[in-house]
Specification:
With 271 residues, this protein is α+β, with helices and mostly antiparallel strands. 44% of the residues lie in helices and 20% in strands. It folds into two domains: 12-151, Sandwich (Jelly Rolls); 156-263, Arc Repressor Mutant, subunit A (Orthogonal Bundle). Strands 1-8-3-6-10 form a five-stranded antiparallel beta sheet, with helices on one face. A four-stranded antiparallel beta sheet has the order 2-7-4-5. A two-stranded antiparallel ribbon has the order 9-11. The chain is globular and about 45 Å long.
């Protein structure tokens, strides 16, 4: 499966929450921990809408369908993503449990711990990796009991959605028709459409385009790949289709987003 977030080099990854932070519905085997330091962001997890406010942490279990929408121009915070195996000994199996109450007040985790993780993320050597695991275990040991973990239960519809998303993430560079995906899953075209609208709040084609532009955004800000190459790498068949879809999601052009990211990288915000 190709998730929106790809943990390629490290099993623990941390990054900033940015203004207008947005990701369509997706899932992956890693856990996520979101901390909002200032402002707020909205998200959905397993079909429930949440607003993460200033000084709050949100926990996301492995393989949980979720989507982000900051809806705020001034959100600041951190997103921490990690494989459950990276956490030390805890009384709970993170792959078989989920938070019953995933929204938690952040005072249990002092800001200096987030600062330490930031520094370790920048340094990135073998000693830093071990220190990150230790800090992560400490944080989860404090936060997870407050989330009241419970055994993971997956309905038939949730399982179908997860299988559909997994397949789309594997084939988004191609043009997998909704009818073909429905046939692979053993359901009708109409039932698959119902699942997308009821669980993801968007249609099949809208979701595929959202995934493509998000992958394009990732390539724009993390590589020097020419935009013309990104267009076809992400499954678009023309520059004009790509530009139209990109502007529709991000309200800016690919070229302007790359310039903005470069400016933010050269002048980063510190805690």
């Amino acid at each position: 499966m190709l998730p929106f977030y790809e943990v390629q080099e490290h099993k623990i990854k941390m990054g900033p929450l940015r203004p207008s932070f947005y990701f369509p519905a997706h899932l992956h085997v890693e856990c996520e921990m979101i901390w909002v330091r200032r402002g707020y962001m909205r998200m959905r997890a397993d079909e429930i809408a949440y607003t993460i406010g200033e000084g709050e942490v949100f926990l996301i279990a492995p393989n949980e369908v979720h989507a982000y929408d900051s809806s705020a121009a001034d959100v600041e915070g951190r997103l921490l993503m990690f494989h459950p195996e990276e956490v030390g000994a805890l009384p709970w199996n993170l792959l078989r449990t989920r938070p019953r109450h995933p929204l938690i007040a952040a005072q249990e985790v002092p800001e200096r711990l987030w600062q330490a993780l930031d520094w370790l993320e920048e340094e990135r050597n073998e000693n830093c990796e071990q220190a990150m695991r230790s800090l992560l275990t400490l944080m989860m040991g404090k936060l997870y009991p407050l989330a009241q973990p419970e055994p993971t239960k997956v309905s038939q519809e949730q399982d179908l959605i997860r299988r559909a998303l997994t397949r789309i993430h594997e084939t988004y560079q191609e043009d997998l028709a909704q009818e073909d995906l429905a046939h692979e899953l053993g359901v009708t075209h109409w039932y698959l459409s119902h699942l997308f609208h009821s669980h993801l709040k968007m249609g099949y084609r809208t979701y595929v385009n959202a995934l493509r532009v998000e992958q394009a955004k990732r390539l724009l800000v993390s590589t020097d790949m020419p935009i013309t190459e990104i267009v076809y790498q992400c499954g678009f068949n023309s520059q004009s289709c790509f530009n139209r879809a990109f502007r529709g999601w991000f309200h800016t052009t690919p070229k302007e987003m790359r310039k903005q990211e470069k400016r933010e990288t050269e002048n980063p915000k510190n805690f």
